[in-house]
Design goal:
This protein has 150 residues and is α/β, with parallel strands linked by helices. The chain folds into 2 domains: 99 residues, 3-Layer(aba) Sandwich (Rossmann fold), CATH 3.40.50.1000; 34 residues, no CATH class. It has 7 helices and 6 strands, in the order αβααβαββαααββ. α6 crosses α7.
Length: 150
């Protein structure tokens, strides 16, 4: 029987780019007003530093944006030198994706999906205004077929 793989090995197997082996820093950045703040020259220097330190700094985007919006941002900021992060936590925390491919990582998203299944409807029924909210808004399907809270 093969040896059991560590959580890190399981995660790395789902990523297109290699994680730093022993990062000196884990940098989790919001996007709007944080990573995207500052002048173009400042952002160009900071993005260059992120790329130069990629094997020492594990970079994670943490944003309310969906993955399509993150993809647009990466295209728009590429000329200033912004590269892909190692990981993206998006959709208000309901998606964890490879920063290089922006593909959701089953190791992280499957447990979220399992816990989410049926939960919004059950929670909304507990609140007096819940049934009206569910009829009008409630959780909606996302572009990738998964559910997203409204």
């Amino acid at each position: 029987m093969p040896p059991e793989r560590s959580p890190r090995e399981l995660l790395q197997a789902q990523l297109a780019a290699t994680l730093p082996h022993a990062p000196d820093l884990v940098l989790v950045t919001d996007l709007d007003g944080t990573l995207l703040g500052g002048s173009d020259p400042w952002r160009r220097r900071f993005y260059g530093w992120l790329q130069a330190e990629r094997q020492r700094v594990l970079h994670v985007f943490c944003t309310g944006r969906d993955l399509a919006s993150v993809a647009r941002l990466l295209r728009e900021e590429r000329e200033l030198g912004l590269g892909s992060p190692h990981l993206v936590i998006g959709d208000v925390g309901s998606t964890v994706a490879c920063g290089h491919t922006l593909e959701p990582l089953p190791l992280a998203t499957d447990p979220i999906e399992a816990r989410w299944a049926g939960l919004p409807e059950r929670l909304l029924r507990l609140h007096p205004a819940g049934s009206a909210r569910l009829a009008g808004g409630g959780p909606r399907p996302r572009g990738d077929g998964r559910r997203h809270p409204q």
